[in-house]
Amino acid sequence: IFEFENGYDEIFKNLKYPKEAIEENIEGTVIVWFVIDTLGNPQCIEILKPLGYGCDESVVNAINTSKIKPIITPRGKKVAMAFSMPVNFKLKKEGKMEKIIEKIKSVFIE
């Protein structure tokens, strides 16, 4: 079993929510498939379930910039391995107080 050098936090640390997706309130899941070669480098990255709005590209970039340990068998041999994973994009919702403040601002500023 392979692992990201710093756990799954490594890929999510590198993941950016695309501006276009934020502006369009896009949420959903990208499913990605890739191969980890014997040196720990991601290869053959493919998006199996796209979301669009820059999210797919963001996932590919996050994987490409993640430090992944090589996969080593119990006998100590480095092997390549295919892997797929879901990556969820979910916007943070504004709280009730923030909505009230925005409403007040829009009344007094306009």
What's the number of extended β-strand segments? 6
Cα radius of gyration in angstroms: 19 Å
- What share of residues are in beta strands? 25-35%
Shape: elongated
Distance between the termini: 58 Å
Number of helices: 4
Described by strand count, sense and barrel closure, the largest sheet is: 3 strands, antiparallel
Task: Summarize model confidence as the mean pLDDT.
Answer: 83
Strand order of the largest sheet: 3-2-6
Could you explain how this protein is built, in words?
- The chain is of the alpha+beta class.
- It has four helices and six strands; from the N terminus they run E-H-H-E-E-H-E-E-E-H.
- The protein starts with a strand and ends with a helix.
Q: What key phrases describe this protein's structure?
A:
two-stranded antiparallel ribbon, three-stranded antiparallel sheet, 31% strand, alpha+beta, 6 strands
Provide a short characterization of the protein structure.
The protein has 4 helices and 6 strands; from the N terminus they run E-H-H-E-E-H-E-E-E-H.
Helices and strands, with pairings:
Layout: E1 5-8, H1 9-14, H2 19-23, E2 28-36, E3 42-49, H3 55-64, E4 71-72, E5 78-79, E6 81-89, H4 96-109
Antiparallel strand pairs: 2-3, 2-6, 4-5
